[in-house]
TrEMBL record:
Keywords: Acyltransferase, Transferase. InterPro entries: Acyl_CoA_acyltransferase, Bact_Acetyltransf, GNAT_dom. Residues 1-145 form the N-acetyltransferase domain. This is GNAT family N-acetyltransferase. GO terms for molecular function: acyltransferase activity, transferring groups other than amino-acyl groups. It comes from the Bacteria. PANTHER family: AMINOALKYLPHOSPHONATE N-ACETYLTRANSFERASE-RELATED-RELATED.
Length: 152
């Protein structure tokens, strides 16, 4: 089940954040602030199946939605949770006024690059040495409405 995150989910999301994002993980305070509404443009979703198995974070500002994170517990992968989370984020975005969704992904994360490409995201730019370890970020876009990058 995909649902909005609640304050009680903070510890589980923080744990998944650390496990899935490594050295680039966000702090507990930042996660808590996002979930509890202290960051008004940020939305957290969780995938719940006998506990929190995954989460997604998106920001919505004007005509741009940005997928900031998707993380799924290692033992829950390959069950469609990332797809379900992404589908919810994408479905919600137009209601916020967004006409496109952006994201950044590590250039060395071939699995994530393939995952997003298979769902219609296209590379539009690169950010050299974006991550702490010097890895480039690939910037990808998904048009959400007709006329924004080719979506019909």
């Amino acid at each position: 089940m995909i649902r909005e995150a609640r304050t009680a989910d903070v510890p589980a999301v923080v744990e998944l954040e650390a496990l899935t994002q490594g050295v680039d993980a966000w702090s507990e305070n930042l996660v808590r602030d996002g979930i509890e509404g202290g960051l008004p443009t940020i939305s957290y979703l969780v995938a719940e199946d006998d506990g929190i198995q995954g989460y997604a974070v998106a920001s919505y500002a004007g005509d741009i939605a940005e997928l900031q994170r998707i993380g799924v517990a290692e033992d829950a992968r390959r069950r469609g949770l990332a797809t379900a989370l992404l589908d919810e984020v994408v479905a919600h975005a137009p209601s916020t006024g967004a006409d496109r969704m952006l994201l950044e992904v590590r250039a060395d994360n071939t699995g994530a690059l393939s995952f997003y490409a298979a769902r219609g995201f296209v590379e539009i730019d690169r950010r050299p040495r974006y991550y702490r370890d010097g890895t480039d970020a690939v910037v990808m876009r998904l048009p959400l409405v007709a006329g924004c990058g080719g979506r019909a």
